[in-house]
Amino acid sequence: MARPTPLSGFPEWLPDGRIVEQHVLDTLRHTFELHGYAGIETRAVEPLDQLLRKGETSKEVYVLSRLQAEAGDRPSSSEKQLGLHFDLTVPFARYVLENAGHLAFPFKRYQIQKVWRGERPQDGRFREFVQADIDVVGAGELPYHYEVEVPLVMAEAFAALRAVGLPEVRILVNNRRVAEGFYRGLGLEDVEGVLRQIDKLDKIGPEAVSGLLVAECGATEDQAKACLALAAISGADATVVDEVRSLAASYGAGNELLETGLAELGALITAAAERAPGVVVADLKIARGLDYYTGSVYETVLVGHEQLGSVCSGGRYDTLASDGKNTYPGVGISVGVSRLVSRLLSGGLVRATRSVPSAVVVAVTSEETRAASDAVATALRARGIPVEVAPKAAKFGKQIQYADRRGIPFVWFPGTAGEDGTPGPDQVKDIRSGEQSDADAATWQPPAEDLWPRVVPAGA
Amino acid sequence: MARPTPLSGFPEWLPDGRIVEQHVLDTLRHTFELHGYAGIETRAVEPLDQLLRKGETSKEVYVLSRLQAEAGDRPSSSEKQLGLHFDLTVPFARYVLENAGHLAFPFKRYQIQKVWRGERPQDGRFREFVQADIDVVGAGELPYHYEVEVPLVMAEAFAALRAVGLPEVRILVNNRRVAEGFYRGLGLEDVEGVLRQIDKLDKIGPEAVSGLLVAECGATEDQAKACLALAAISGADATVVDEVRSLAASYGAGNELLETGLAELGALITAAAERAPGVVVADLKIARGLDYYTGSVYETVLVGHEQLGSVCSGGRYDTLASDGKNTYPGVGISVGVSRLVSRLLSGGLVRATRSVPSAVVVAVTSEETRAASDAVATALRARGIPVEVAPKAAKFGKQIQYADRRGIPFVWFPGTAGEDGTPGPDQVKDIRSGEQSDADAATWQPPAEDLWPRVVPAGA
């Protein structure tokens, strides 16, 4: 077999990169659990007809077939055609319906899994990637305060990751009711059409968007100007609410829907200013997926890496799932873990302090006394210290080299018998400083920062 | 959407079942890391031609196609046909070859991922399931002592899981060199043929196997009897070595290959008797996949659940991977996590102490004072206590019911202002005992056993 080459769009990390990814995953999980989110995992596949319910994603789905089915016989009609899930929302909605009788609502869950999309791979856009989602789903109703909660949980997770070198994040929030209320107040009825054009602002600029609003959405020059003025409003405190309100007043566009949206947006910004100062920013041009979101919407950029796109997005949807009898509204937000980790690694932003878990290599004096080295390792592990035993009773220099190549800080030398037959004391060497001292496997402890590999800013 | 039904062969757990699975995964990971195994994760897909190199698995593979490719245009010839991996060994071998220049050998890795097989689902046999593998792979050579290490690492993980209700395990070990040496010593040259028949012992019994050895493998009645006598030997200490040696001597079948195998098997059993007494048993009828294993082989049964099949298997292979220039021998062992967890849950052997992470629900006195409840939650979380805030400022009875339905042990009541306007003290209630007392969010600590959900034997 010749040396294989990577598959474009299917990222894999070397062991030290995986330590970085694992740290991100552990931090997310710990934060989610501190907030009471229960972990679930769904199967990787869903019936194809369920995956295709949102038409626009049909091109992205990987369809499965069994090899022997290809060889001639078609899948039997009783066997549903399956595809790999392209997000964690569709499977979660199905899980909620399937298990509704066994779940307590409102149900808070997190889910960290791979998803697959058959898209053309680009920087930060993969065919296989890990998402980490939190959602809160209610039965029949879901209070607004969960729309405040979910971005703040993510803000807390990102704050924890700042310590290892994650750049600053900005969670950009908007509220669909504000946009819809404002447009309707202006007299524009094609709300989705307007949002679609506003969504293009970053790509084509305000002049082109203005032209499209007039040409495609039946707006007057003045209405288009108002829409652009709304989209230009942003800010990290509740004064944005006043700005929007006075803009609306100047166009005589105030109304109840707008006020409802502004009250919600204001509550989110006020809570965020207290609990995650500087992280959450109201940005009235965020138009994300507004065809199914019905309240708050979220996008997140890494400051200094804005061209990477959003690393954490979501929103409120009044109908996550429905079985005809019951409707389940929800609010959720999803981190693109692979996109984030890929930037942390390729951008040289973070590194692992070593590539293996072991803090210690126990040297082997001779293959005949390997059991003595194994016993030292067992004693250290019993106190939670990660240890491996040298592969060979080679010269000690080679055994130290074995540790050094892996970034393992300590080498342990079992005591050898002196001339009178009594065993000498064990010794442990810090191979970074060269310092070597007597040690007892029943009590010795490495410095806390050496116990496990850590993830640190690349400069550290 | 009507209520969906489960897909046969694709297991999913409710939140409390996932806590059990997560505990198993965390225990495995922690044990592997204590022994210095580095975690990696490989993509879910491999080129189909790589997956099909072992012919006998061809029927199991799920093949991927992109939906739009189905709609007419064939995948371009530059795009390789992809399938989902059916184990973690094939992807690991590919990973080793692809990254050999960046890895330090011997390379110890663990890998915990889902795999897929398009087989007919049965009890304990799934189409999607989680495996947890450890392997040690060398460049050019790999010392025997790693064949002793890998089952002992697993024995340690199983020992840790015994505390939560896992039944006793028996790790059954054999060595291909023993079988091959013995058969050749008897004068039987069709070693693989003999092993294939011996592998049927549990299913069809010794008489039928004896008949097949004579009919299919050219054995005499006497040779068949010797093969069955070898397969009948088992034991947890080094006396098995003597038993095999004297059996071989009685047939004049002793030879160098047999002695090499017996020395290895003896070393494994001796080490295991010391480090995992009673867990590892030599069983000379274990013939597992002996077409590519070349030394030790392992299978593991849950005592009292033998009909479930092996929950942890593996062995030594002289050629895990080869790029023509370099050969990479390895030894590995793999836990069938889904099979194990499915039995723990369906057999009512273990349970989680609650279905959500939260130890505390902070009650909300009125929606106007929700921020005060949020502040309590933040203060508790800052000290690592998992907390959620009640969904609604309902009557306290309903808020207690919210906690009770989820098994959350504590409800926290923020102090309300007295007649003179000064706030009263917060109180916390253990809803199991009904005991309620003053508490300070800056210092209160739940009992350690209530902090996180625990996994315990179902009777506990």
List the keywords:
homodimer, 460 residues, alpha+beta, BirA Bifunctional Protein, domain 2, Rossmann fold, 3 domains, nine-stranded mixed sheet, five-stranded mixed sheet, 38% helix, elongated
- Per CATH, the architecture of the largest domain in chain A is 2-Layer Sandwich
Strand order of the largest sheet of chain A: 1-5-6-12-11-10-7-9-8
Name of the top-level CATH class of the largest domain in chain A: Alpha Beta
Q: Name the quaternary structure.
A: homodimer
Number of helices of chain A: 15
CATH topology-level name of the largest domain in chain A: BirA Bifunctional Protein, domain 2
Structural class based on helices, strands and sheet pairing of chain A:
alpha+beta
Number of strands of chain A: 19
Largest interface, chains and sizes: A-B, 96 and 95 residues
Distance between the termini of chain A: 40 Å
Number of domains of chain A: 3
Explain how this protein is built:
- The structure is a homodimer of 460-residue chains.
- Chain A is an alpha+beta fold and 460 residues long.
- Chain A folds into 3 domains: 15-42 and 89-351, Bira Bifunctional Protein, Domain 2 (BirA Bifunctional Protein, domain 2), CATH 3.30.930; 45-84, no CATH class; 360-457, Anticodon-binding domain (Rossmann fold, 3-Layer(aba) Sandwich), CATH 3.40.50.800.
- Chain A has 15 helices and 19 strands.
- A 9-stranded mixed β-sheet of chain A has the order 1-5-6-12-11-10-7-9-8. A 5-stranded mixed β-sheet of chain A has the order 15-14-16-17-18, sandwiched between helices. Chain A has a two-stranded antiparallel sheet with strand order 2-4.
- In chain A, a hairpin with a 5-residue loop joins strand 17 (426-430) and strand 18.
- The radius of gyration of chain A is 28 Å and the shape is elongated.
- The model of chain A has no long low-confidence stretch (mean pLDDT 93).
- The interface between A and B is large, with 96 and 95 residues.
- Strand 3 of chain A pairs antiparallel with strand 3 of chain B, so a sheet runs across the interface.
